[in-house]
Design brief:
Structural class of chain B: alpha+beta
Distance between the termini of chain B: 27 Å
CATH class of the largest domain in chain A: Alpha Beta
Helix content of chain B: 25-40%
Radius of gyration of chain A: 22 Å
Number of helices of chain A: 14
Strand order of the largest sheet of chain B: 1-2-4-3
Number of strands of chain B: 4
CATH superfamily of the largest domain in chain A: Ribonuclease Z/Hydroxyacylglutathione hydrolase-like
Largest sheet of chain A: 7 strands, mixed
Shape of chain B: globular
CATH topology of chain B: Translation Initiation Factor IF3
Order of helices and strands of chain B: EHEHEE
CATH architecture of chain B: 2-Layer Sandwich
CATH class of chain B: Alpha Beta
Oligomer: heterodimer
Radius of gyration of chain B: 12 Å
CATH topology of the largest domain in chain A: Metallo-beta-lactamase, Chain A
CATH superfamily of chain B: TusA-like domain
Helix content of chain A: 25-40%
Number of domains of chain A: 2
Strand content of chain A: 15-25%
Largest interface: A-B, 21 and 18 residues
Largest sheet of chain B: 4 strands, mixed
Strand order of the largest sheet of chain A: 6-7-8-9-10-11-14
Number of strands of chain A: 20
CATH architecture of the largest domain in chain A: 4-Layer Sandwich
Strand content of chain B: 35-45%
Distance between the termini of chain A: 39 Å
Number of helices of chain B: 2
Shape of chain A: globular
Structural class of chain A: alpha/beta
Chain lengths: 410, 83
């Protein structure tokens, strides 16, 4: 393929930068309609987009060759929907087909770019941001921006603990190497439903123990025990890392074995309990009515922490929840005033809050039952099946806070 | 058990959009009623052939199969020329 100016091929990293800066562009997504509905590009604010599957352009364009057909289709059927003078980002599943479409747009003199590697590369892209850099403490937030998943490395005096590592291990291994630390322990705050954990694999690679609360080592729907190797974790347990230690706080509700970690009275890794704008859903174990009151008790326990403590959540649902440096972190006292779920918690009676939880449940994602099986070692998918299970953004938060922004898979 | 076909298109190792683009060209060379068997390794081709069949006026998607060969999946599509 011919050389292109840099602004005509966007890597996932370029794309994230542009989304964070709220650059104006228009998305032409040429995947099939189901894929577009399930997993689309989202920014800090809604992105204007149109979805026309490439095979429709090819067939309806009516020419023998792909490029000629796409050009004919755009000129005749799509030109009305493309905003003049705005950069068009051509998007497909893996980045090859969208390059044909980008080439057609170029020939028609539209300003355009191709998303390199397509939605697959965007979904698998990891961003690493420093949250704290002190002489004897560093905290990094490792995110998958397309999926809204957050994980952490806490490092001190040459040692590190990784919390909630995601499926691909290279971000953690590379980071540990770059900052010169040994991974001493790997912890999952809970048995995840929305993504495949990298915990067991990372622990094996690092020769470190993998910790999980035993309640989450039983698949809640199958009621079968996990087959993965793991160490039991309990409320109050201390996990030393260099000159610091993480303290486990059992906060059941989203799952029965959910554990938050407090660090030095300054940081609280909340897992799937408190997020920035919302709180976690209590229904992914299939027992929403039974677990909702537990969730409330746990949230009240967390709300009792000092207001200045920084909340480091397990998910975000919109890029707009980040601060100006792209970090998902906020003082608890701010969240008490802004977080929809915490506002409801403070406002409602027990009965009222349980009602609020049950009325705010988003759609169940069918893949989540199998993802929990994978994380418990009850199912071992091939790579492409694993990728298909994880496709799209997480739906672990209550829906209420995101209805206005159009986020989530409703 | 295998579906009958008149011509075979080997699209193994080809990335999207080539399995579908090549199949569309081959369909044009068939006689009416003949079936093209397309063997692809691109998983996305399964949904894409279904979507294509909905808009194309000269073909019908007769069957789709997934076969396992040496640890990799093969996605097989049978496409009949109808016009």
């Amino acid at each position: 393929m011919a050389e292109r100016p840099n602004d005509e091929i966007w890597s996932p990293e370029d794309l994230l930068g542009r989304l964070e800066r709220r650059d104006k562009f228009f998305v032409l997504d040429v995947r099939n309609r189901d894929e577009f509905e399930r997993f689309r590009l989202e920014g800090r604010s809604p992105l204007p987009a149109v979805n026309v599957p490439y095979f429709e352009m090819l067939e309806l364009g009516g020419k023998e060759e792909m490029l000629d057909s796409v050009i004919a289709y755009i000129e005749r059927d799509l030109a009305d929907q493309l905003p003049p003078g705005v950069k068009i980002l051509s998007v497909c599943a893996k980045g090859d087909t969208s390059e044909y479409v980008a080439e057609a747009l170029r020939r028609l003199s539209y300003p355009c770019a191709n998303l390199q590697g397509g939605m697959k590369a965007w979904g698998n892209y990891y961003a690493t941001r420093a949250l704290a850099k002190e002489p004897d403490l560093a905290i990094y937030q490792v995110s998958r921006p397309a999926r809204g998943c957050l994980s952490y490395m806490v490092a001190s005096a040459g040692k590190a603990i990784v919390i909630d590592p995601l499926r691909h291990l290279h971000p953690y291994l590379d980071l540990a190497k770059r900052i010169g630390v040994t991974i001493e322990a790997v912890i999952d705050t809970h048995g995840h439903a929305d993504h495949i954990s990298g915990g067991v694999a990372l622990a094996a690679k690092a020769g470190a123990p993998y910790y999980l609360h035993p309640y989450d080592a039983i698949h809640p729907i199958d009621v079968l025990p996990a087959t993965i190797p793991y160490e039991f974790m309990r409320d109050g347990q201390m996990f030393p890392v260099g000159r610091y230690a993480l303290k486990a706080i059992h906060v059941p509700g989203h799952t029965l074995g959910l554990v938050a970690f407090q660090l030095d009275g300054r940081f609280i890794f909340t897992g799937d309990s408190i997020f920035i704008r919302s709180i976690a859903r209590p229904d992914l174990g299939g027992k929403a009515e039974t677990w909702a009151p537990l969730h409330r008790t746990s949230l009240e326990r967390l709300l009792g922490l000092p207001g200045e403590i920084t909340v480091l959540p397990g998910h975000f649902s919109s890029l707009d929840e980040a601060d100006e440096k792209g970090r998902f972190a906020a003082p608890l006292e701010d969240l008490k005033r802004k977080n929809e779920g915490l506002l409801a918690l403070q406002r409602e009676t027990e009965e009222g809050f349980v009602g609020y939880l049950l009325e705010s449940l988003p759609k169940i994602v069918p893949e989540y039952v199998n993802i929990k099986r994978v994380n418990a070692g009850l199912l071992a998918p091939a790579e492409e099946d694993a990728a298909a299970l994880e496709l799209g953004k997480n739906v672990c938060a209550l829906s209420q806070a995101y209805v206005a922004s159009g986020g989530g898979r409703q | 058990m295998s579906q009958a076909f008149d011509k075979l298109l080997d699209a193994r190792g080809l990335n999207c959009p080539m399995p579908l683009v090549n199949a569309r060209k081959e369909i044009g060379k068939l006689d009416l009623g003949q079936v093209l068997k397309v063997v692809a390794t691109d998983r996305g081709s399964v949904a894409d052939f279904q979507g294509w069949a909905k808009v194309a006026k000269n073909m019908e998607l007769v069957a789709q199969e997934t076969e396992s060969a040496e640890g990799a999946n093969l996605y097989v599509h049978y496409v009949k020329r109808t016009a």
